[in-house]
Amino acid sequence: MNTTVIPTIDVGIMFEKEIHFSLKGEFRDSRNDLVTGDWKVWFENGNIYMSNNLASFQIEEGFTLHPSVPNECSVKLYSVTIGINFHWERKEDQLFKGALKFIIEDKKITAINRLTVEDYLISVISSEMSATSSLELLKAHAVISRSWLLAQIEKNETLKSAASKYTSFTETDDERIKWYDREDHLNFDVCADDHCQRYQGITRASTLPVEQAIQDTFGEILSYENKICDARFSKCCGGMVEEFENVWEPVNHPYLQKLVDLDKEPVGFDLDLKKEKAAQSWILSSPESFCNTQNKQVLSQVLNDYDQETNNFYRWEVRYSQKEVSKLIHKRIGLDFGLVQEFIPIERGASGRLIKLKIVGTKKTMTIGKELEIRKALSQSHLFSSAIVFEKTQNNGETIFVLKGAGWGHGVGLCQIGAAVMGSMGYPYKEILNHYFKGATLEKKY
Fold it and tell me: Pseudo-torsion of CA 369, 370, 374, 377, nearest 10°?
């Protein structure tokens, strides 16, 4: 990567049979013709077609519209799905800077936004959190979002040149282990949803603090041993930060390790949460931590309007009847256990999050993992976290499974709510980064 030039990236925005969009200002297409106004593209018989109701024509795959005056032109994409597979999934119209590219994937059209990393970050910071967050939190998030993105680009280049094919799935008769990461995307750098980082263009109103945070940290990244850090983050760690290899591929990153989300160790706990008894004690209590907060002002800084639909995230509870959970697992991950009899924790990570869970049913007994596969199996969208304790009770002769959990998200790296509390307490962004990424170095990449 040329360190003297701001990198340009490709972001996958939407994936549909037909896409409607509007161009504000003049754009030049691949033939150097000027294009503006309202359009649609659609996939038909292996080809992409484009129309503005006056003319229809076929376009080649990779067809790109470039803004003539980048700061004055924008693209509106209609009915973009956000929160894919989450409880608040919905569609909204979104506005973007930069170029617009169309490719074919699985007999659908993918719309790709091409823009600079720094323009991308202004949106990410406003999309991942509220743009009214404290300046120190915004600066910390700018650094980790920039680091994560550039690390993914480097990782993608490594994977493309690797001799063996990357795999994130193993299955035997007794065990299915699967993890989900951005390697699912082969034709662009990152997607625009929670699978990678939330990126909703300039739809999310930015603020002067967001722009200042990007400017103040311009080109800054976290590094470890001369490599850009794969700087992860989640909404709420639940009081204990998880290790990278327990969520994704079995690679140890020294800067993504277990740590208590506090400036001191909480009293009265065995913090070896890989042990079942210790994990249960931790999850079933409410230990002091930065992210253990009900401060509505701080939470409103971190949580966008749809995130605020979630009230309990530090500790929470979900109940399913035996029949409900059996049908749910079959529907969500395609495994028919019959009537589920037991959930047996097999392996937990450093934060108490389940890495492997054995499900015992009348038709099948099988172990599943990693954490997101477990969360997917046990919710119509994604369970808040895999830091779960299972309890069984009876209601009018019916077996009820009670899932008591901790945190929101995978728990690796920066805890957004914890970092927001640190920012509100006056911690500067460098100290926030030092807390969550032990041993990493802040440096200027370009």
Answer: -70
Answer for the pair 61, 46: CB distance below 8 angstroms, yes or no: no
State the burial class of residue 169 (Cβ atoms within 10 Å of its Cβ: 0-12, 13-18, 19+). exposed
**Pair of tokens at residue 140:** 């910390």
**Residue 246 identity:** N
pLDDT at 182: 57
Angstrom distance (rounded) from CA 357 to CA 38? 50
Residues 227-280: pLDDT tens digits?
999 999 999 999 999 999 999 999 999 999 999 999 999 999 999 999 999 999
Query: Using one digit for the tens of pLDDT, what is the confidence trace for 80-107?
Result: 988 666 555 788 999 999 999 999 998 9
Contacts of 63 (CB under 8 A, 6+ apart): 29, 30, 48, 50, 101, 102
Backbone angles phi, psi at 370, to 5 degrees: -85, -150
**Are the CB atoms for 35 and 29 separated by under 8 Å?**
yes
Q: Which is nearest to 378 in space by CA: 398, 352, 404, 397?
A: 404
- 352 with 387: CB under 8 angstroms? yes
For residue 60, pLDDT over 80 is answered with yes
Strands 190-191 and 8-16 turn out to be parallel
Helix or strand (DSSP H, E) at 322: helix 322-333
Question: How many CB atoms neighbour CB 284 within 10 A?
Answer: 12
Under a CB-based contact definition with an 8 Å cutoff, are residues 90 and 196 in contact? no
In angstroms, rounded to a whole number, what is the distance separating the alpha carbons of residues 416 and 141? 8
State residue 251 phi and psi, 5-degree precision. Answer: -125, 130
In eight-state DSSP terms, residue 66 is: E
Of 365, 377, 370, which Cα lies nearest the Cα of 338? 365
235 and 420 Cβ atoms separated by less than 8 Å: no
Cβ neighbours of residue 364 closer than 8 Å, sequence gap 6 or more: 335, 336, 337, 338
**CA-to-CA dists, residue 209 to 87, 214, 354, angstroms:** 30, 9, 38
